[in-house]
């Protein structure tokens, strides 16, 4: 029995200050982000989606709304889909800018393989995997859609592909409003398919 769990990254966020907002409340979709959510909803309108679940953060809930509405479903919430915890939350972190220029923050960079500035990659992968298998069970024989965030989705993908969880953030294949679709036969993962229904975006853009 085939089941597909789509991992959808939320759309663009209104973030004029260009900060790393992480888990901070009150960050909504921008107008572009709202259009991206509608584009994705249209692209999956004919899919057999029977379960929609999202991170508790506003941007994820807003991205899930049009898709759930098109399939006459409620948006469920799973805390395990939330953005990664990060000690630089609320600060600007572009190279040569903001918090990274301040010596008092340099100790947080001591171990990029963990990483030392936030939630460990392995913990992210494990909680995301739990959310995926719950969604797979809820949609068995059909399709589920989970709205999450760039780092958690990319970390889970690398975990499933057996790759090191440490990576170059500038090379993440996880554009805004992109789909990373996990294909299961029974409980066995047999394929990972990536698509960008709303187009590609630059992974180097902070706070996107």
UniProtKB/TrEMBL annotation:
SMART domains the record matches: PGAM
CDD domains for this protein: HP_PGM_like (cd07067)
SUPFAM superfamilies: Phosphoglycerate mutase-like
Pfam families per the UniProt record, alphabetical: His_Phos_1
Protein name: Histidine phosphatase family protein
Organism of this sequence: Amycolatopsis acididurans
């Amino acid at each position: 029995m085939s089941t597909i769990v789509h991992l959808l990254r939320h759309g663009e966020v209104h973030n004029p200050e260009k900060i790393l907002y992480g888990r901070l409340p009150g960050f909504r979709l921008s107008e572009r982000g709202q259009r991206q959510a509608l584009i994705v909803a249209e692209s999956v309108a004919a899919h057999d989606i029977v379960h929609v679940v999202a991170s508790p953060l506003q941007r994820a809930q807003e991205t899930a709304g049009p898709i759930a509405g098109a399939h006459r479903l409620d948006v469920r919430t799973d805390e395990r889909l939330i953005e990664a915890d990060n000690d630089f939350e609320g600060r600007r972190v572009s190279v040569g800018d903001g918090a990274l220029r301040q010596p008092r923050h340099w100790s947080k960079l001591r171990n990029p393989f963990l990483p030392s500035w936030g939630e460990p990659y392995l913990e992210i992968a494990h909680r995301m995997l739990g959310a995926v298998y719950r969604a797979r069970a809820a949609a068995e024989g059909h399709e589920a859609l989970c709205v999450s965030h760039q780092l958690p989705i990319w970390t889970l993908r690398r975990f499933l592909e057996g790759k090191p969880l440490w990576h170059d953030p500038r090379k993440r294949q996880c554009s805004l409003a992109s789909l990373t679709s996990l294909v299961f036969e029974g409980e066995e993962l047999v394929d990972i398919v990536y698509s960008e229904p709303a187009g590609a975006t630059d992974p180097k853009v902070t706070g996107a």
